[in-house]
Specification:
Pathway: Isoprenoid biosynthesis; isopentenyl diphosphate biosynthesis via mevalonate pathway; isopentenyl diphosphate from (R)-mevalonate: step 1/3. The protein is of the alpha+beta class. The chain is built from 11 helices and 12 strands. The mean pLDDT is about 95. It binds adenosine-5'-diphosphate and (3R)-3-hydroxy-3-methyl-5-(phosphonooxy)pentanoic acid.
Length: about 400
């Protein structure tokens, strides 16, 4: 049999509306973006002991572990030659087993960075869960991961990472089982999102599920606390600038800040949250209209969206989750008449700037230059890119 090679990409995401207010019961909406993570799995003919080579380029991580040890430690009969029956494991005990394995195989595991530890834990958790009842792995394999996303800055790098890994493992398994599918079907996507959610739990404890859903399916996902993320049945292709303040922020701290503010000003903060909810609902309606085949008054709709982005930002700023760098970016966008808001928890992280289709490229270039000269990182990308995809290799 030929040596197997699989290449998969998955998008990152931004929260368009509903950050913070989602925690108080309001609807939020997230959207995939055109910046992607890529995973390549390649089988390598065995010359001696087979190994799994983990190469996470964005983390400067290159680890090699003996395949035999992984198989002995995690794999269990009954062995199957089908990819179709996902294995259920108890999350906490499987993760504890993964942690024990890493401490055993890599005695300095506790000394590497927390970011690297998280990625290695997730990797082995997913690998052993997906391949754990198969006896199809004999050769060495390399798993290489790269990303266009900034890691740890609210644009869904962890979900994009997990979705890519699961999708690549699943496709690898399918090929090993003799299946020649060249696309992911709905049941594959549902499984990819569900398995990636387990990795999100490793990274975040109690994730909402909005990130893994958005990075798997692409496009727009709405979400209410305590509910299941809902895939909106329309696509968008809006151009944005994604601006990285390079100011690190702590989501938990910002969430606590808002909660303390609400304790003291329950009605006022309640009204702000409700206003954010109204903005989300109106924005979804406009996005839905913009996704129709024949759209009337496009420019007017973009002006309306711009107002909603600006209003949403100011409401978030009133909660104390903006930052001078975010305000600076907004001021630059305002000079050119563009709408702009923080995305995610705020306090730094990223801002998004809405670019209507009529925007003049020279104007966009000038704005980008202004922002770069001020020290921000700027990416020109689109909202609503495809979800996880198989690439031909
Ligand atoms: N390309 C990647 N390669 C390896 N690990 C990654 C990659 N992207 C993200 N991660 C993992 O995801 C974690 C980032 O999660 P998080 O802090 O939630 O950031 P984000 O908001 O970007 O998802 C990192 O600590 C790292 O463990
Ligand atoms: C502030 C919050 O609403 C969004 C956090 O977004 P991010 O992880 O900073 O992208 C928190 C949450 O929804 O869990």
């Amino acid at each position: 049999m030929d040596l197997c090679k699989v290449k998969v990409t998955a998008p990152g995401k931004v929260i368009l509306h509903g950050e913070h207010s989602v925690l108080y019961g309001e609807v939020a909406v997230a959207c995939s973006i055109g910046l992607r993570t890529t995973t390549i799995i390649q089988e390598i003919e065995v010359t001696n002991e087979p190994t799994i080579n983990i190469i996470f380029l964005s983390l400067g991580l290159n680890e090699s572990i003996p395949l035999k040890k992984v198989v002995e430690y995690f794999f269990e009969p009954p062995f199957s030659k089908s990819w179709k029956n996902p294995i259920e494991v108890d999350h906490a005990s499987h993760l504890a087993k993964v942690n024990r394995f890493w401490s055993m195989i890599k005695p300095n595991f506790e000394k590497i960075t927390e970011i690297q530890k998280q990625s290695l834990r997730s990797f082995l958790y997913l690998f052993s869960k997906i391949f754990g009842h198969t006896d199809l792995l004999a050769n060495s394999m390399s798993v290489e991961m790269t990303t266009e996303l900034t890691i740890g800055a609210g644009t869904g790098s962890s979900a994009s990472f997990a979705v890519c890994l699961v999708a690549a493992f699943l496709q690898f398994l399918k090929i090993k089982c003799g299946c020649n599918d060249k696309i992911f079907h709905l049941e594959d996507l549902e499984r990819i999102s569900a398995e990636a959610f387990e990795s999100e739990k490793i990274m975040h404890g109690t994730p909402s599920g909005i990130d893994n859903t958005t990075c798997t399916f692409g496009s727009l996902v709405s979400f209410k606390k305590g509910g299941t993320p809902c895939l909106l049945d329309f696509k968008t292709n809006i151009r944005i600038l994604l601006v990285d303040t390079k100011v690190s922020r702590n989501t938990k701290r910002l969430v606590s800040h808002v909660s303390a503010l609400k304790e003291k000003n329950s009605d006022a903060v309640g009204c702000v949250m409700m206003a954010c909810g109204h903005i989300t609902t109106t924005a979804i309606k406009i996005l839905e209209e913009l996704a129709q085949d024949e759209v009337k008054d496009i420019e007017e709709k973009y002006r309306h969206l711009r107002d909603l982005w600006n209003m949403n930002h100011c409401l978030l700023a009133s909660l104390g989750v903006s930052h001078p760098a975010l305000e600076d970016i907004r001021a630059s966008a305002e000079v050119y008449g563009f709408g702009c808001k923080l995305t995610g928890a705020g306090g730094g992280g990223h801002a998004i700037i809405l670019l209507p289709p009529s925007s003049d490229q020279n104007t966009i270039d000038s704005l980008m230059d202004d922002l770069k000269n001020k020290g921000y990182a700027v990416k020109d990308t689109r909202l609503g890119s495809d979800g996880v995809s198989l690439e031909i290799v």
